[in-house]
Amino acid sequence: MRIKKHHRDKLKWFLDNFYNCMGEKYTIFHAVKFFKARLRNNRDAWMGVCGDTGTGKSLYALMFMILFGRPMTLTKNVAYVPKGEEIGRMFDKLNFQCLLVDEAAREMRAVNWQSRQQQQVNVKAMTDRFKNNMVLMNMPNFNEFTKSMRRGNLQFRSVIIYRNEKYARVVIQRKSRNWRSDDPWGDEKADSIYNKVQKRNKELDNDNILSIERSLPQTVMDFAIPNLELILPEVTDEYERLKTESRKLREEEDNNKPSFIKYKKEIKDLRVKFAKLLFFNPLHIGQMKVSQTQMAKALGVSVSTFKSYLEVPNDKKKNHKPRG
């Protein structure tokens, strides 16, 4: 689905009326203008988009991308449940545009730091410049990004700090330019303030949260956003359809992985046990007779499984001569 002029016009009209009623100091228009100015200086911008499940991270990112004003579609500019190489390919095809990595948690979480796909994204973020692209990466918790992403590649983050029946509140923060800092996002300072407020008031409300975030030097701006589903339902419905299809496709791919990949950990564990048996020889193989039961126990498998390891393919049995 291609985003057309009438989509942008409708969204702008709705937001103009929304902000006239809200009386906001900053709006999402200010955020778009801020990042477009950065991109025009031959820079890319990689931003983590975080917030609790159901707060509207994806819809906020779509709203931002539509207002960005450049040609976009829901297939070329959105990576649904992506792998690392897919993110890189899509990024390379864009110039002065936005890319949404909708479920970055699949590849970019800290627990997957060693994956080849994630390393490809890290290299892309560090080395590919002057394409003037804006990359938005959805992740429920910012700390789930790897340390290298948080400290290096991600220069900005948008956090949806709360959502009520009428709107969601977005805070945009910029990483400290002090590269020596152990806390470039000011999270330790924020934690101490939150703890003090909780000790006094026992419960954090939306006003307290907003006041704390505004006080942090890393905060650039904050603004409210309405629900995009109420403004452009045809866009959000198509987005949800494509996302559901992508999840099903990824599940099918995972289920059809070759067994040597699917059971990689089990194979490695077995190799480790076998290597120890050969090197340390705890069963004194060669010095005394070892039963199949003893060998199976040492490998951590059943006797029947161990016997299956000893089976010879049918086409080789006639040429097989037992030892001894």
What does this structure look like?
The chain has 324 residues and is of the alpha/beta class. It has two domains: 5-175 and 218-255, Rossmann fold, CATH 3.40.50; 263-312, no CATH class. 52% of the residues lie in helices and 12% in strands. It contains 16 helices and seven strands. It has a seven-stranded mixed sheet, with helices on both faces. The model is unreliable at 314-318 and 320-324 (pLDDT under 50).
What is the CA–CA distance across the termini? 71 Å
The CATH topology of the largest domain turns out to be Rossmann fold
What letter string, H or E per element, gives the SSE order? HHEHEHEHHEHEEHHEHHHHHHH
Structural class: alpha/beta
What characterizes the major β-sheet?
Answer: 7 strands, mixed
Gross CATH architecture of the largest domain: 3-Layer(aba) Sandwich
How many β-strand runs?
7
What's the average pLDDT? 83
Using the coordinates above, name the CATH class of the largest domain. Answer: Alpha Beta
Task: Spell out the key features of this protein.
disordered C terminus; elongated; 7-stranded mixed β-sheet; single chain; 324 residues; Rossmann fold
Question: How would you briefly describe this protein structure?
Answer:
With 324 residues, the chain is an alpha/beta fold.
Show the helix and strand layout.
Layout: H1 5-22, H2 28-39, E1 45-50, H3 57-68, E2 78-79, H4 84-92, E3 98-101, H5 105-108, H6 116-127, E4 134-138, H7 147-153, E5 156-163, E6 168-174, H8 187-201, H9 206-215, E7 219-225, H10 228-231, H11 233-255, H12 259-262, H13 264-280, H14 292-299, H15 303-310, H16 314-317
Parallel strand pairs: 1-4, 1-5, 2-3, 3-4
Antiparallel strand pairs: 5-6, 6-7
